[in-house]
């Protein structure tokens, strides 16, 4: 379980998160949604221990999220974070050496599933294939929590579809929890159990997606627009 | 890419409808095995928990049966399937009639309209 207790995060004078309290139950796929600059990435970085809160506590399975929490949390950055002179295979080798929980067999299966050429250099990959490779190395880690910052942004519909399919195929919801941020709401909606809506560093709501459809008769996009307008 | 969902109806319900329609069309026969939760999730690009819920719903209405360690199967009880077929018919008619009423058509117009339509189709064969 992930818990944020009255968490505030300030970057110098700018407040990114304000008194945020959250509880995320395991075994679900959770979407963290909100406009640009609302605090989504900050939230993910706090959970993965890449940032420390200015105030409050962030707990992952009861443990304070510091850099060492990376043994429980895999984090996919929205930026490209690998060596461009590596080949696809070398990138996978590198991740295998870095993380004890890396499942090589799963990585190989995913490379085939994503149709990635192992001999190609990362710098020669298309943006779509770089996106796919990022997913491969992140999902190959057998960790209880997987955080993904904008895994779909800037990618064409075919790549997005293959990433979504890859996610469903290679995640084990009995043991894993996924939190992702995205603006691709329509596409991601069927994939989510729960959404957390965030605006200007404050959590507006945390709801089950099916609950929004059943009780409000709204799609996720319409619901978000309505909530944001309030 | 997967077939899109209607935005204002719960996805698990839409999955149930899709499966029921497959059974009625004969694409899924009596006693036939449904795809595994994961396979259907991948195919329709939905959360495996949602597929699980849809299967549970179909199980509760006895349209499918879960066999331990083997998977989920369409029932072999024809009475249940017949009942489901009847229910689907009524629900489609219900939708049609409600929409026609909202547009102000009388029952007579609906009946005649339907009759004419079907007869014309018959002629074109």
UniProtKB/TrEMBL annotation, chain A:
Pfam families: ABC_tran. One of its GO terms (molecular function) is ATP binding. Residues 2-225 form the ABC transporter domain. InterPro entries: AAA+_ATPase, ABC_transporter-like_ATP-bd, P-loop_NTPase. SMART domains: AAA. Keywords: ATP-binding, Nucleotide-binding. It comes from the Bacteria. This is ABC transporter ATP-binding protein. The lineage of its organism: Bacteria, Bacillati, Bacillota, Bacilli, Bacillales.
Automatic annotation (TrEMBL), chain B:
It holds the Pfam family GntR. The keyword DNA-binding applies. Coiled coil: none annotated. The keyword Lipid biosynthesis does not apply. Residues 9-77 form the HTH gntR-type domain. InterPro entries: Tscrpt_reg_HTH_GntR (IPR000524), WH-like_DNA-bd_sf (IPR036388), WH_DNA-bd_sf (IPR036390). It comes from the Bacteria. PROSITE patterns: HTH_GNTR (PS50949). Keywords: DNA-binding, Transcription, Transcription regulation. PANTHER family: HTH-TYPE TRANSCRIPTIONAL REPRESSOR YTRA. This is GntR family transcriptional regulator. It comes from Sporolactobacillus kofuensis.
């Amino acid at each position: 379980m992930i818990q944020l207790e009255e968490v505030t995060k300030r970057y110098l004078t700018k407040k990114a998160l304000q008194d945020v309290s959250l509880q995320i139950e395991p075994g679900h796929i959770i979407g963290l949604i909100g406009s640009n600059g609302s605090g989504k990435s900050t939230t993910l970085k706090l959970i993965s221990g890449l940032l420390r809160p200015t105030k409050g506590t962030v707990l992952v399975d009861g443990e304070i999220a510091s850099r060492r929490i990376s043994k429980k949390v895999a984090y996919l950055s929205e930026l490209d974070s690998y060596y461009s002179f590596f080949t696809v295979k070398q990138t996978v080798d590198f991740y295998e050496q870095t993380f004890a929980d890396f499942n090589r067999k799963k990585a190989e299966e995913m490379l085939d599933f994503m149709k990635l050429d192992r001999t190609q250099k990362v710098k020669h990959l298309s943006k779509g294939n770089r996106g796919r490779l990022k997913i491969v190395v992140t999902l190959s880690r057998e960790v209880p929590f997987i955080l993904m910052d904008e895994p779909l942004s800037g990618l064409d519909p075919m790549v997005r579809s293959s990433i979504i399919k890859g996610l469903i195929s290679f995640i084990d919801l009995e043991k894993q929890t996924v939190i992702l941020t995205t603006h691709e709401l329509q596409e991601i909606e069927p994939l989510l159990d729960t959404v957390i809506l965030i605006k200007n560093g404050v959590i507006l709501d945390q709801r089950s997606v099916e609950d929004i459809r059943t009780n409000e008769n709204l799609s996720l996009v319409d619901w978000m627009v309505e909530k944001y307008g309030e | 890419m997967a077939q899109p969902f209607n935005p204002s109806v719960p996805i698990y319900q839409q999955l149930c409808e899709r499966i029921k329609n497959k059974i009625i069309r004969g694409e899924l026969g009596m006693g036939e095995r449904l795809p595994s939760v994961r396979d259907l999730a991948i195919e329709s690009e939905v959360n495996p928990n949602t597929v699980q819920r849809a299967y549970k719903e179909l199980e509760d209405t006895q349209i499918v049966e879960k066999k331990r360690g083997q998977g989920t199967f369409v029932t072999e009880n024809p009475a249940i399937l017949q009942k489901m077929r009847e229910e689907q018919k009524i629900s489609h008619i219900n939708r049609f009639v409600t929409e026609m009423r909202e547009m102000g058509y009388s029952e007579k117009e609906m009946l005649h309209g339907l009759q004419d339509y079907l007869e014309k189709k018959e002629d074109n064969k």
